[in-house]
Write a structure and sequence with these properties.
By secondary structure, this protein is an alpha/beta fold. It folds into 2 domains: about 280 residues, Rossmann fold (3-Layer(aba) Sandwich), CATH 3.40.50; about 140 residues, Isoleucyl-tRNA Synthetase, Domain 1 (Orthogonal Bundle). The protein contains 18 helices and 15 strands. Bound molecules: ligand ME8.
Length: about 500
């Protein structure tokens, strides 16, 4: 049976246009999805937009359009970004779709049935920007800890009995140490839950733009309860017997920024426990990007437009930089100079040069076919096993380490070229020259298979230049060999140098 994998990005708010932070999460998920497909897994990859809530209602009013028109337009900008970045999601969910409203209401009904939701009254400090209530003790200088403005709100509200799930959550974290990753984030969540949980207000009557509470449509559902359900909607929930839900739900990995970890690692599992539904496999929280050392924010006007970056540098370069530059899980700083430096050193100099010098030499001096090797030395044979050895112990959840590891192999290939100097062998030992070139070409083939999740366009181009059939590009093809005598196309440069 083929193993299944299910990966999700957060669904992004449509009150603003996409920026580098959104692009980062989506590209990280795309890289993991591509990696698992190369392992032969059946992968479902979901992204989408979070379209309800007071923030959106207010933004639409400000723009002078209906909330629906507003969300239709902004959601499109997120789809556009995905197309632009060649993201391989198989579904794009919008919380205003009928399939989602049905799923959110079905989950609500189950929480009512299990007695986990009750009607009460809410009074508290509400921050529209965060879509969250804060206790008096949370406020910093009269504002939310995030800096958002708060307002005092009293309204009838349904509550979720979050307080009843403290022990069950802590027991679950303990029994499933990989449920929250990385470890530092897991410890943070455990400390938070140990500090005690209050029941959570899960409905609103003060505005209208949301999923109506079944049977009491003066209330709309709290946007986070609505939003989190998206991950199940896309698998056909409330149809739990459907193949997709059964196959993919237990495999779910939610990749989120650290800002929304609490919603995913505390509220979401508690909702699911209360509804008697299985929990996702993992919540992974990545770190936060700053821009040249400064927090990214609309009000500071320093957001980075991913579309502009892709237009300037190409998608492979942008994704390589973002994924390679920081440890997956840690914060990172974006700087244009760092991006240019990395492109020139890692992509153009190390990888691009290797491919270009080996393939052009074969093209010009080897009749443009895969060379026929003589006998391999022990060193040649060992060298050719390095990529598979590396892959066997690679962990794609440490995606920057994966990139580092592949680039160590690239450095080894460059070293092999320098040590064995195929061009110098042309006159003295053409047989050995062909062996060296064959070893290098096959090593490049293997590297290009490994780089597919990181730089998919360039990797495909390199594999095309080695005439590797589409069907032979999965990880299981690493151990195959290039077929001597196969005609090769004229090589062209893969990574241009960038002016700094
Ligand atoms: O929170 N660095 O949506 P959102 C890294 N709708 N990642 C960043 C980032 C930055 N500076 N800025 C944003 C929401 N992100 C909810 C989610 S899910 C059921 C509902 C990324 O549009 C990061 O993934 O505010 C963060 O968690 C997400 O965008 C927040 O997106």
């Amino acid at each position: 049976m083929t193993a299944a994998a299910y990966i999700t990005t957060p669904i992004y708010y449509v009150n603003d246009k996409p920026h580098i932070g959104h692009a980062y999460t989506t590209l990280a998920c795309d890289t993991l999805a591509r990696f698992w497909r190369l392992q032969g897994k059946d992968v479902k990859f979901l992204t989408g937009t979070d379209e309800h809530g007071q923030k959106v209602e207010k933004a639409a009013a400000l723009a002078g359009v209906s909330p629906q028109d507003f969300v239709d337009t902004v959601s499109q900008t997120f789809r556009h970004l995905i197309d632009k970045m060649d993201v391989t999601n198989n579904d794009f969910i919008r919380t205003t779709e009928p399939r989602h409203i049905k799923a959110a209401q079905a989950l609500w009904a189950r929480l009512i049935d299990s007695g986990a939701i009750y009607l009460g009254e809410y009074a508290g400090w509400y921050a529209v920007r965060d879509e969250a209530f804060y206790a008096e003790s949370d406020l910093v200088n009269g504002k939310a800890p995030t800096g958002a403005e708060v307002e005092w709100l009293v309204e009838p509200s349904y509550f979720f009995r979050l307080s009843a799930y403290q022990d069950q959550l802590l027991a679950y974290y303990k029994a499933n140490p990989n449920f929250i990753a990385p470890d530092s984030r897991r410890n943070e969540v455990i400390r938070f839950v140990e500090g005690g949980l209050l029941d959570l207000s899960v409905s609103r009557t003060s505005f209208k733009w949301g999923v109506p509470v079944p049977g009491d449509d003066k209330h709309i559902m709290y946007v986070w309860l609505d939003a989190l359900t998206n991950y199940m909607t896309a698998l056909g929930y409330p149809n739990e017997e459907g193949g997709d839900f059964k196959t993919f739900w237990p495999e779910a990995i939610h990749i989120v920024g650290k800002d929304i970890l609490r919603f995913h690692a505390v509220y979401w599992p508690a909702f699911l426990m209360a509804a008697g539904l299985p929990l996702p496999r993992q919540i992974f929280a990545h770190g936060w990007w700053t821009n040249e050392g400064v927090k990214i924010s609309k009000s500071l006007g320093n957001t980075i437009d991913p579309i502009e970056l892709v237009d300037t540098f190409g998608i492979d370069a942008v994704r390589y930089f973002l994924l390679r530059e920081v440890s997956f899980g840690q914060d990172g700083d974006f700087s244009r100079q760092a991006l240019v430096n990395r492109l020139n050193s890692d992509l153009a100099n190390a990888y691009g040069n290797l491919v270009q010098r080996v393939l052009s030499f074969i093209y010009k001096n080897g009749n443009a076919v895969v060379p026929t090797p003589g006998v391999f030395t022990g060193e040649d044979a060992t060298f050719l096993t390095l990529p598979a050895q590396f892959l066997a112990q690679a962990d794609i959840m440490q995606v920057n380490r994966y990139a580092e590891g592949v680039w160590v192999l690239i450095a080894k290939a460059n070293q092999y070229v320098d040590e064995h100097k195929p061009w110098g062998l042309k006159k003295t030992d053409p047989n050995r020259m062909n062996t060296v070139l064959y070893v290098l070409a096959d090593f490049i083939r293997q590297i290009a298979i490994l780089t597919q999740p990181l730089v998919p366009l360039a990797s495909a181009k390199i594999l095309d230049q080695l005439a590797v059939p589409e069907a032979d590009r999965l990880f299981c093809a690493l151990n195959q060999k290039l077929l001597s005598g196969t005609k090769l196309p004229e090589p062209t440069g893969v990574f241009p140098r960038v002016q700094s």
